[in-house]
Amino acid sequence: MRPNVDPVEHLIALLAKLPGLGRRSARRAALRLLMDPETRMLPLAEALRSAAESVKKCRVCNNLDSRDPCSVCSDPERDAGLICVVEGVSDLWALERAHAHQGTYHVLGGTLSALAGTGPEELSVAPLLRRATEAREVILALPATVEGATTAHYLAERLEPGGVAVTRLAQGVPIGGALDVLDDGTLAAALKARR
Amino acid sequence: MRPNVDPVEHLIALLAKLPGLGRRSARRAALRLLMDPETRMLPLAEALRSAAESVKKCRVCNNLDSRDPCSVCSDPERDAGLICVVEGVSDLWALERAHAHQGTYHVLGGTLSALAGTGPEELSVAPLLRRATEAREVILALPATVEGATTAHYLAERLEPGGVAVTRLAQGVPIGGALDVLDDGTLAAALKARR
Ligand SMILES: [Zn+2]
Ligand SMILES: [Zn+2]
Q1: Is residue A83 pLDDT above 90, yes or no?
Q2: Angstrom distance (rounded) from CA B50 to CA B39
Q3: Is B5 touching A (CB cutoff 8 A)?
Q4: A19 neighbors B32 (Cβ within 8 angstroms)
Q5: Chain B residues 18-37 within an 8 A CB cutoff of chain A
Q6: A2 vs B118, which has greater pLDDT?
């Protein structure tokens, strides 16, 4: 009944692309929004537009934030000598929510993977090596997967000759588990018990 | 670390209010959007704005559509003498997806509930009674709940004296089940076997 360019169908199609929303829940979400255009739909549209315009990648650590350098990097109370290396921005956010880390971060943007053809040039490795020359300790908070371990090994080999202490998350990170689905307590414990 | 008005936190809070998205998936969705502001985030913002501006309630049947009367009501090939009464817009959309109904619809906007204090005045009952005077048959496609049955009974008592045939969805609607989570085949069968 609806032409292809129908705004409702178009909205449902875009919502269905979000992680966690299938087509059915996208439809329910669209309907809920349509029932309250003024109080739900337009505020969400405006929040998206505003975030898209204001959020940038931090030039120091690659975090996504409305400030550049990000609010972590520009906080004078954060220990810039202690850099926590994570795979992605979601891991950084998870560690921030856990209030587990008083230093700064470095978002690699992925892990090394021969299979996926991801080499060090595809990741933010060179900027990390530069930052590490001014740091006291680098914590490798990478996922407990083969790729995460490979990446940690690779980074440790390049970092340690520079004299910086290289530590890793210890117990608490389940094998194969992503950091950003862990509860805050587990994250805090794993960070405290780093080796 | 972030002030309260942070655009990212604000976006996550709004996304978390959508049905089907918890706080964790809202965060994942926000991050995914933030990673592609031009190709994902701004198009979604624009789709929301455009839908909010163009979608209205159909003056005839209460459907939500970019046309008023809606695309069903304004389709000359739909049988205006056959009105299918549903609780909500999501039920209308479910029946449309199932291509189960060649007539028109009437969205009640709820079911009668003494507990919730929903009387006939809170629902679109009077407009339905007016439309029914010109109709041949009214199909009561209400949920198989106590409130749905009460509402169907109430409507049948008011409709039948006017001479219109009143039918109901038959087999296939599970007890306590909402229409919009049924598969298309079940919906089509229930409609065909109406009594
Ligand atoms: Zn930063
Ligand atoms: Zn209509």
Answers
A1: yes
A2: 17
A3: no
A4: yes
A5: 18-21, 24-25, 27-35, 37
A6: B118
Report which bound ligand comes closest to the CA of A106. 1
Task: Tell me the per-residue pLDDT of B3-53, one tens digit each, with 9 for 90 and over.
Answer: 457 899 999 999 999 988 888 899 999 999 999 899 999 999 999 999 999
pLDDT for A184 equals 73
B7-54: CATH class = mainly alpha
Q: Quickly list DSSP for A45-100.
A: HHHHHHHHHH-EE-TTT--EESSSS-TTTT-TTSEEEEEEEESSHHHHHHHHHTT-
Mean of pLDDT values over A103-127? 95
pLDDT digits (tens, 9 = 90+) for A12-34: 999 999 988 888 899 999 999 99
Per-domain boundaries in chain A: 7-54, 64-168
Instruction: Name every chain A residue with its beta carbon within 8 A of the beta carbon of B65.
Output: 2, 8
Ligand 1 (ion): residues with CB under 5 Å are A 58, 60-61, 63, 69-70, 73
Token representation of residue B104: 């028109």
User: Minimum-distance ligand to the CA of A75?
Assistant: 1
Cβ distance of B19 and A27 shorter than 8 Å? no
Q: Is B38 exposed, middle or buried (0-12, 13-18, 19+ CB in 10 A)?
A: exposed
The CATH number of domain B64-168 is 3.40.1360.10: yes
| Residue B142, φ and ψ in degrees, nearest 5 | -100, 160
Cross-strand partners of A104:
A83
The answer to whether residue A49 neighbours chain B at the CB level (below 8 Å) is yes
Q: Which residues of chain B have pLDDT under 50?
A: 1-3
The residue type found at A22 is: G
Residue-level pLDDT at A2: 43
Strands (E), B7-127: 56-57, 64-65, 79-86, 103-107
Instruction: Tell me if residue B110 falls in helix, strand or coil.
Output: coil
Rounded to whole angstroms, the maximal C-alpha distance in chain A is 68
- For chain B, the maximum distance between any two Cα atoms, rounded to a whole number of angstroms, is 68
